[in-house]
């Protein structure tokens, strides 16, 4: 997360008719990453406290969360989030804040939990749409989750077989990720995961499917791409990440990845076999010294 402090950002929404402050609408916070995934906290009048202590309205039992971490204040201008001088800070859309008004769709990070702020005339509809989205997207990295990856791979494999088209798959793992967490902390580890996901997504085509497979492992489905094309893309991503400066709270974190690549061919008939082949090559990349791509064997 970028350690940028916003001090008392007063930016309420205006009523388009009167030009004055807009009346607060129904609002809620939805957990999109962390404990109690999908839980909704309705935001009503007055103040709502967030912290590790059980006396808080929203209790987050995490070491990275202060006892009285932050509070939500509802006034005639909207919903204001204020950090209570917490140890690890409060973040809105990756920016560290002291105080800021929240807007529909804002992402709030406290400790290792991420909330999405929803507001509007039909809050229940927005909530159910968000719950549906959670079934396909990883809350931390905002790329697809494992469930969506498996469903899409089955679909793409069937299409490739039917039309006799190539299909490539790459699986990559962040090297020594446990050491990163142990050395720099889990918040830094989360930053690395998000930034890696961003870099891959920015470089992938629209038809490619980038997913978080689990932990520090990611996958990319490459429709219409054979083994050599998949290997070249994997190498491009590997070099991109190795040369990227990962900086969290002023500290530079060395990051590299190991990649295994496979393609649909006469020997591979199922999605499981495609995954196992790429996974075996990923293991070979690790055994070979890491920070490399293996596309055969």
What would you say this structure looks like, in words?
The chain is an alpha+beta fold. Helix content is 30%, strand content 31%. It is built from six helices and 19 strands. The strands form four sheets. It has a seven-stranded mixed beta sheet with strand order 1-9-8-11-12-2-3. Strand 16 and strand 17 form a beta hairpin. Helix 3 crosses helix 4. The longest helix is centred in the middle third of the chain and has 18 residues. The protein is globular and about 65 Å long. The protein starts with a strand and ends with a strand.
Write the SSE topology:
Elements: E1 2-6, E2 27-33, E3 40-43, E4 46-51, E5 58-59, E6 70-75, E7 78-83, E8 90-92, E9 95-97, E10 99-101, E11 107-110, E12 113-119, H1 123-134, H2 146-163, E13 167-174, H3 177-184, H4 186-203, E14 209-214, E15 217-223, H5 227-243, E16 246-248, E17 251-253, E18 257-263, H6 271-287, E19 293-294
Helix pairs in contact: 3-4
Essential attributes:
297 residues, alpha+beta, 5-stranded mixed β-sheet, 6 helices, globular
What separation lies between the terminal Cα atoms?
38 Å
> Largest sheet, described in full?
7 strands, mixed
Report the structural category. Answer: alpha+beta
How much of the residues is beta strand, in percent?
A: 25-35%
Mean pLDDT: 92
Give the tally of β-strands: 19
* Number of contiguous helices: 6
Order of helices and strands: EEEEEEEEEEEEHHEHHEEHEEEHE
Question: Radius of gyration over alpha carbons?
Answer: 22 Å
Strand ordering within the main sheet: 1-9-8-11-12-2-3
């Amino acid at each position: 997360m970028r350690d940028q402090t916003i001090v008392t950002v007063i930016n309420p929404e205006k009523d388009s008719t009167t030009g004055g402050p807009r009346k607060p609408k129904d609002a809620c916070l939805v957990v999109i990453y962390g404990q109690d995934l999908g839980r909704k906290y309705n935001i009503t009048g007055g103040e709502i406290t967030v912290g590790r202590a059980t006396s808080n309205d929203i209790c987050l039992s995490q070491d990275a969360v202060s006892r009285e971490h932050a509070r939500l204040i509802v006034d005639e201008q909207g919903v204001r989030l204020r950090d209570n001088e917490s140890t690890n800070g409060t973040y809105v859309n990756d920016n560290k804040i002291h105080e800021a008004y929240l807007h529909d769709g804002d992402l709030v990070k406290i400790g290792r939990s991420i909330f999405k702020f929803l507001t509007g005339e039909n809050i229940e509809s927005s909530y159910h749409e968000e719950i549906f989205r959670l079934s396909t997207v990883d809350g931390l990295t905002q790329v697809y989750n494992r469930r969506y990856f498996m469903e899409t791979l089955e679909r793409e494999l069937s299409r490739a077989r039917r039309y006799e088209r190539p299909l490539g798959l790459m699986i990559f793992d962040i090297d020594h990720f446990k050491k990163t967490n142990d050395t720099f902390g889990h918040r830094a580890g989360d930053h690395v995961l998000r930034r890696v996901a961003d870099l891959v997504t920015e470089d992938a085509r629209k038809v490619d499917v980038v997913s978080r497979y689990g932990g520090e492992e990611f996958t990319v489905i490459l429709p219409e791409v054979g083994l050599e094309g998949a290997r070249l893309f994997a190498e491009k991503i590997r070099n991109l990440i190795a040369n990227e400066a990962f900086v969290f709270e002023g500290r530079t974190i060395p990051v590299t990845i190991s990649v295994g690549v496979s393609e649909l061919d006469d020997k591979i008939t199922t999605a499981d076999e495609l995954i196992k082949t790429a996974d075996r090559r990923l293991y070979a990349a690790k055994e070979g010294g890491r920070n490399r791509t293996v596309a055969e064997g």
